């Protein structure tokens, strides 16, 4: 339920509504907007006496939020949320930040080379997993804490923001210490205790769509994070499994406008995991920007042929440079821009 206040409602009116919500045993959540304040109500609102609240001074209307994902819905918050993961790196506005880097952090030399290449090409953030959720327990699992230290080193040199994955609660605390944005991978999209935990942290979260998750599932997972008080959630379309083995996943670009209609949260697109094939990454990254994605996440490796994970879908550095140039043109055509902050 959402109590929409009149534009001229006083702070005493707002306090009065909050008191009444509390009196009825619920938690009020004031949501100041540009024109008017709304007050969200958390909990099972079926039992609320809204007719009384509707009559309080300064109240314009009471909206019953129909969607199961309440705080993630556009009904709850009409304006798109802008998530700034580091100074000038904003998702959800007119900027379209490009997050790029290898699948995994492998060595100091590899991640520093990748960071320089991302920076030179005009990327805004460096990606690279230190904790890797691999389908096989025998595959490279990541460098762990050492990988996070190497990412921090790359940030210190290039000024790029860092996006990296956490697989469990303890890892999330560690990632939060070193990175600018915590990635929750497709395999953990429905790890609800992990979602709740990152909801209690103050770091932005990049939440990837599960490989068999519906858009409703994705938004409900985002709701877990929002419900714990962390408003900085960026969604990510990375493809879903289907019957067709022509590509690694089916890159569901329709999810971009669908999510943007249903939710105020920004959504980025990952054509690397979405297609799994290097030569498909560039065309689908271009399509994602054209479709209105609020950012692009792409795998790029200094030497993809020697990558310890996802080499076949990683762009060569020169391909990445060319891609960013093309994305700039496409973004400009729809009134957006792929510009990176100048940084260190
Ligand atoms: C990754 O970003 O390297 C990754 C493991 O992605 P996903 O969770 O989408 O498979
Ligand atoms: Mn990968």
Short description, anyone?
The protein has 344 residues and is α/β, with parallel strands linked by helices. It has helices at residues 11-23, 50-54, 108-121, 145-158, 169-178, 192-200, 215-227, 255-262, 271-275, 278-291, 317-333; strands spanning 2-5, 27-32, 37-42, 59-63, 83-86, 89-91, 98-101, 125-127, 161-165, 181-184, 205-208, 233-237, 267-269, 296-299.
Give a structural overview.
- Helix 3 (108-121) packs parallel to helix 4 and helix 10 (278-291) runs parallel beside helix 11.
- The radius of gyration is 21 Å and the shape is elongated.
- The protein has eleven helices and 14 strands.
- Helices cover 35% and strands 17% of the residues.
- Residues 103, 129, 133, 185-187, 208, 238, 273 line the site of phosphoenolpyruvate (PEP).
Keywords:
344 residues; alpha/beta; 8-stranded parallel sheet; 4-stranded antiparallel sheet; 11 helices; 35% helix; elongated; binds phosphoenolpyruvate; binds manganese (II) ion
